[in-house]
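I'll show a sample.
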Amino acid sequence: MNLKKHGNLILKLSLFGHFLEKDEVICGYNALKIETVYFAKELLPHLMASTERSINDVLTSVPEKDKKQFITTLSRLMNSAILVPNNYNETEYLKSVQQCFPNKPNVRVMVMHMTDYCNLNCRYCFIEGAIKPDYQRRIMNTETAQATIDKFAEIIGNKKFPKKPSIVFYGGEPLENFSTIKFSLEYLAKKTKSGTIQKVDNVIITNGTLITDEIALVLKKYKVLVAVSLDGPEEIHDYNRVFHSGKGSFAKTMNGINCLQRHGIKPSVACVLSKNSLPHMEEILHFILGDLKIDSLGFNHVSIIPNFNEYDPEYEEQCAAAIVRSQEIIQEYYPNVYERRMNNKMYNFFNRQLLHSDCTGCGEQMSVSTDGQIGICQGYMGSRKTFNNTVFNADANPNNDPVFQEWSTRSPLNMPECYNCIALSTCGGGCPRNADFLSGSIWNKDEAFCFFAKKAQTWMIWKKYQNLNQ
């Protein structure tokens, strides 16, 4: 530090600056720049004194043995914009960051709703729980499927994307309409071969209970990525994931997983951590990763649905802690396993890459209903909110739709109430639909997700310190 240049400055804590304490160590963190500065706890009072008096004045009260470390640490805190001059314009820097993102839709993911019907009656289902009593259930026919795929091919064209485009077969339970899925895969293969659609990933999200050898062979033939919903061992899984008769679905789900594995398909697992399963998180992990040899999974919390699943901050905090704890277990026992929620955040933090949005609905995704309506989020299927067009309209393009355009700008980086959050650049804002259901606007925070984002960020900061000192 040049004391002649900076010695008379009085500093302030940046809007994006945070200090965390663990044992005898302090971490200064700039949540916008994703920069960390670790130092001894005993220096903090002197460093914070620079927000009340000039640096030169503070330096006179620093013990001689600590002065060199004080100057070095303060220089690093200033270089990382954690402590900044009083006249530092943080909003101008934020604007420069905001301009790094397009803030407009660029759809690359399409969710195809194959059916509104499901053979299960899961107690926490955010699709079923949001369906209105007068909703008309349908299954997607081949005509609609073909028009849907043609529309998606037109939208993505030959554009290059940060990630490969994908089509997700969804429901209800999509395998209730396997004939149309098979038609769609065959049609996609023909279009890919003829060059009328660029190569896409095909994904299916299924409860696994309807998988047969015939279905597994088709999924394998077309290299479909399969995600199976499994909440853990039988007693845990069957608490919420039941048939309409009330009977648990575990045995049928396991038959499906075993069938996939017999045919050389490595499914990923989607696991909901409900209130009753949270105390058994470690057992769930060892069952899925150890016993079943699954190497990719994603934990989910129970979605918020008005008059169905209400917001419960105590549950959300416990769920967040469990997901963070799961990463410690994974790193100790299953280091090659990918867990979507934590791994995504770790990638952004350790590579210092800002996450604009956690949800692909914020500019990257379109959902198509069973009758061909185009919307953003499958969570609105029961109300058709955001579903403003149809695949049968030649002029329909979600990239030009005002609702899609608004959603594409939703990011913590564009939400002032998030600016002073420690997870600002790694959060992604959670679920806009949850925010809407909780508060009536996608522009308010997804309070449920905040618990996880903050806990994950704090854990990553100290994980980095641990890694640096190993």
